[in-house]
Task: structure prediction
Amino acid sequence: LTLHILGGKVRYPKNDAPWDLDIINEENSALFKIICHLIYRVSELNALDFNKDQILKKGLKIHLYTTLNRISYDLSVSNPMLNDIKKMYPHMFDIVIDVLGEINQLFDLFIPEEEAAYLTLHFQASIERLDINRKKQKNIIIVCHMGIGMSQLLRTKIERKFHQIYVMDCISKDDLDDYLTKHQDVELVISTTSISGVKVPHLIVSPLLEYTEEKKLEDFIKQFDEPVRQEKTAFSMLDYTTPFLVSLQDDVEHRYMIIEKLAKVLYEKGYVEKEYAVHAIMREKMSATTIGAGIAIPHANSKFIKQSAIAIATLKEPLDWGTEKVTLVFMLAVKNEEQKMTKQLFQELSFISEQPSFIQKLTTETNVMKFLSYLHY
Result:
């Protein structure tokens, strides 16, 4: 019972009460060093300063305190959300796994992938918080011809229902041109009366903002936020692969065999060091690199990469890969410095994983050039 209590979650007595466990606050404690290393490296690999998020730090203190107790007393760890987290946040999960590999070596620990998934949620939630702080709200003005009372009512409704909007002012139609001249930062105009000659995006609604108009405004904001996507935009991964790095309809018996084959091609073409294959398999043993939908993304530490590249393989028959079956393999050899490209790459992989018919099209293709021509949105 004592062991399980030590391995259980600690709760704050009050929301604002300090948690003054000495083991967490001592700067020379192993836990303190682990948290510092974790935040520093995940920040570095994401190009985002997680040190600014105090909620994240408190959450990691509580979580890792209990995690280390579980490991110390050999208590089992389960995470029923493991596969879902890997599929939903493959980029962050991958970063956390790599950093935990460093921590395991530095502190002689073995923090399992189940814990990596929980930590992924902590960092993903932090990204949401930091994004809210970093991205300013949309600046809008309300144009109304029915008096100050009606315009304030409309303002209250909009501010209550749309937190991503900042209402700069409520003005009359007659003052609109002059106001826009003086305030270049207005991004959207919501008006209860028809307006013309306005270059800023605008939307006409009724003063009462009924449900149908709320939906209309919501759709308008989404459309306003989303960049226009051109038809058939090529994947950025095409910049990092060649026909010589693509192998179709491979017939292998084990996932390590396809990892070794792709790593060998990357090595022979001068993209990676010879040790890349061994370390890719070691990484695979830590946590299977499946992201769902029959896709796997094996890789190794970037220190073994000479030049960023991606090797691709399709499998003749679905292959056991951890708890899943895989038919499409992307071996990622991308340097840490290319963080923007890495995020774009994971967006493309996520897009592929959500298109079953597209995956079938890729995995049944036998011509390399045709296969590469399919890689676009």
User: Anything to note?
Assistant: Residues 11-23 have pLDDT under 50 and may be disordered. Residues 293 and 354 are 7 Å apart (CA to CA). Residues 2-134 form a domain with the PTS-regulatory domain, PRD fold (CATH 1.10.1790.10). The two ends are 54 Å apart (CA to CA).
